[in-house]
């Protein structure tokens, strides 16, 4: 929007004035707010706020997390920087300034919307803001686990297994592979993700199909579950079953058929 050096008729001028009042872009404006979309738990993040005063004088920069203020920079104050305690928000004041705020030791509670609000001194009192969302990633500590596998399946037998991801944030995206090929959608049984008291998500995906001769390569069926978290953590678990008559489940108690699990 061009605000200067253009001749405007009265109605246009009013429109620009109204737009300016609504968006705060008549004088000072926030040109860019940088909030990393994803960061791993325990790390540090740098939040950036770029602004143009456009002739105004700076009164304050305020940072909010989910609409609660945690940082204030007022050049007229001494000291100019002030920090307010919020859960999950630990400001590294030595690395912060009017243009950026560094948070260290981020936790799952650091996830949320971060807003930078810049205000001008009197007489303008212009205010503008910009925001971005941070999602703190909790990497899975181990691979997924597979349950319900039998050692042997007959042709025409039923495979009914589950893959459960290790707790993570965001929830793992699970995929089943049968002999290296992605299982068809009709074989999948999606289950609702559960959440632990610490806020970690546990995803489960079932696999259910009837075996055909093509499922056995040299008499072996290979099932693999892949867990993907935030497109950066990939873990998998593979199990093998043989072609043959399934053993009665009571045999497991004898410790003879079920060893090696
Ligand atoms: C798979 O998980 C679901 C949900 O937890 C459960 O109801 C079902 O019995 C499980 N099936 C197997 C084969 O483990």
From TrEMBL:
Keywords from the UniProt entry: Signal
Residues annotated as domain Ig-like: 11-126
InterPro entries: Ig-like_dom, Ig-like_dom_sf, Ig-like_fold
Ligase listed as a keyword: no
Signal sequence range: 1-27
Protein's name in the database: Ig-like domain-containing protein
